[in-house]
Amino acid sequence: MISINALVEIFTIALSVFFAELGDKTMLSTAFLALHTRRFLAIFIVSLSAFVAANILPIFLGCFIGGFVENYFTRIGAAIVFMFIGFWILFSKDKGFANISKGLASCFFAVFLSELGDKTQLTVASYAMIFRDPISTLLGGVIGYALANAIGVILAKLIGIKISYRGIRFVAGVAFIAIGLMLLLYIVLVNKP
Hints:
Blueprint: H1 4-21, H2 25-37, H3 40-68, H4 71-91, H5 104-115, H6 119-131, H7 134-159, H8 166-189
GO cellular component, one term: membrane
Keywords: Membrane, Transmembrane, Transmembrane helix
Family: Belongs to the GDT1 family.
């Protein structure tokens, strides 16, 4: 039986990764490749696999670091990372990988490499430091990533790749800044050292 705390952690991580992934280069790449190859389900599964492969080590490192650093400081660090990610989403010019070949291996490596150091990877690593639960963190990350990329693939299938992500990116950026600010307020007002 999964605890209520674990469910809250999973939901929180999934929601954050979902917002981080909206309009991101991996979402755009996955949608583009799905449209380009017409192998919608296969591209979605390969993209999800690449996300998992790229995030396992950062999650375990986050849990490891979180075990040595006082929770107060990991929360402050995470709040700063979330605000950084929000500004990154708002002001980056990410357009994805438009010139990827049709192969599934190309898709895997494109998504894997684009995840390295990406805002979704920073998000899951930050949550791993806070919650110190690699299973919940990975599960939440996978759910959020899958939902965002499923939307991208479905939209690619229905209306093509000519989707404007500017509004979606704005909402995602503001959401991350708000998450960071709320976490800082919680730390300052409720969870003092």
